[in-house]
Structure formats: structure tokens, C-alpha cells
Amino acid sequence: MYWLNAGGLYRDAPLGPVRVGAVLEGQTRFAVGNSFGVGFYRAGNFSTLFTFDVLRVGLREDPAALQLAGTLLGARFALSDTHAWIFTTVRDRAQVRQSLLVVDAAGRVLGRLEDSALPVGGAATGAGAGAGLPEWLTSLQADPVAVGPLLFVPTDRGVVRVELVGGVPTVTREFPDTEPFVDSATPLLFDGRGLIAVQTQRILQLQMS
What we know:
four-stranded antiparallel sheet; five-stranded antiparallel sheet; single chain; 1 helix
């Protein structure tokens, strides 16, 4: 169990709570995977990305990796044992901007997609939805799942596989047979054997070839 309290990031341990590192109270988002965690905190328009090992204390910080000017509207994380995919949405004056940052366990930037400019209240899907960002990113409404260096993303046309190509998150395979079971609002999980789709009233194991 990990939690935030009074400007600190803590985890539980057999002898009591352990303080992993210092963060900014009320301005921090984070997620934890099996081997490492990732997050960021903000002071005004300045953001600091951090990663941490689940077995050690201390944060590896990078104030230059993630720049989020404006009001944070949402943040989403997908972590594997090797990669962290960080999705953010901010409102900057009259525009909504989306970005995706990919880092490794040490916090090194591996790739990114950024700067979708949408009118506030505008649609986030379809052609022209954002300044050059792909639809699988702009239409995302639920948690994707990271498996090693790969990201599996739910879309209205089924699951797509995303990986880094020259530092750019890119769809490298589509699974159209999953369309009857998955849309952009279907959270995905991975149980070691395959993908799981979490629907409103049932949970499905997806068999993909």
C-alpha cells in the first residue's frame, strides 16, 4: 500500500510506514507497478517527474521531462516492469492539450506524443481531433495496460497494440476481432496469460492470435 501524507510519499512495511520521498502536498499524482513507481508533482506551471523502486527509499526526479502548462484535468498511468506510460490532459487558456510520455524505471525518457490543441468543450474524437495526435490517444476513456515494452489500448474498433518506433508511440498491430467486446471506455488488465476486458456487468478473458 502506498499513500500521500503531509508532503510525503509512504508505503507500508512489516515494521510500520516507510517514507519513500518528499512530494508536494495536494499537487501529486502517482502510480505503482510490480517493480517501480512513477508520478509527478506541480508547483504552478512547473512539473517534476519522479520514479522510485518498490524495494528502496528515495525518488529519482527530473524537472525537465514533463511540462504541463495550465490546469490539470486528468492523469492516467500504465506500468509494466520496464516501462511507464503517462497520459495527461491540461486546460491552457481556451485549449485542452493532451500528451503521452514514456519513461523507463530510472525515469529516462524513451518517447513521447504531445500537444493536442482542442477548443474547450470540443469533441476529442474523429478526424481533426487534436493537432496531429492519433485517435487511439485522443479518444481514450479507460485504462490501457502495459506489458513489457508494449501498450494495449482499448478503442471503439477493438484493441490496438502500441510500441515505440523511433521514440514515437505507434500502433504496430490491430485486433479487430476484439471489437464486439471492447470500446474506448473498456478498462484492460493483464493477468500473466492474456488481456482481460472489464465490462459493466462481466469480465472477459480475451484470446488474441
